[in-house]
Specification:
This protein is mostly helical. The chain is built from 4 helices and 3 strands; from the N terminus they run H-H-E-E-H-E-H.
Length: 137
């Protein structure tokens, strides 16, 4: 009988995934090809990208790392950093799909907010800015 690690050069530790039946490439193989976005969907994604840039500019320096989104499929909260969200939206624009990705590792839930929170914060900030620009400070 040959041990799984017998094929490794001497001095290297055994492969911790040897004998593991999970093949991560299967997730990519199972993906349906993306469909191009229609003009309305494309405009919505472009608006989300623009909003995301505003939200990150307003909240990123305040310690907010990104958004929390409630997943309808698994009924769990998913934490997405700003960069991951931007990459997902850009991928949608390119080929109409969002590829699988690793979830945030050990996220601090207090560092993430919802889209609605971001919208409200941006609206309040813009309202405050308009009050100051009108001389009502």
């Amino acid at each position: 009988m040959v041990a799984v690690h017998d094929h490794l050069p001497p001095g290297l530790p055994p492969d911790p995934f040897a004998g593991d039946d999970y093949d991560p490439t299967e997730a990519f193989d199972a993906l349906e090809p993306g469909q191009p976005l229609d003009p309305h969907e494309r405009m919505a994604v472009e608006e989300d990208l623009a909003d995301l840039a505003v939200y990150e500019a307003l909240l990123g320096h305040r310690g907010v790392r990104g958004l929390v989104i409630h997943c309808e499929d698994c009924h769990d909260e998913h934490f997405h950093d700003w960069d991951m969200l931007r990459a997902n939206l850009l991928q949608l624009l390119v080929d109409g799909t969002v590829r699988p990705h690793e979830p945030a590792y050990d996220p601090a839930p207090d560092s993430y907010v919802t889209w609605d929170y971001c919208r409200g914060f941006a609206d309040a900030t813009m309202n405050d800015a308009s009050l100051y620009s009108d001389g009502l400070d």
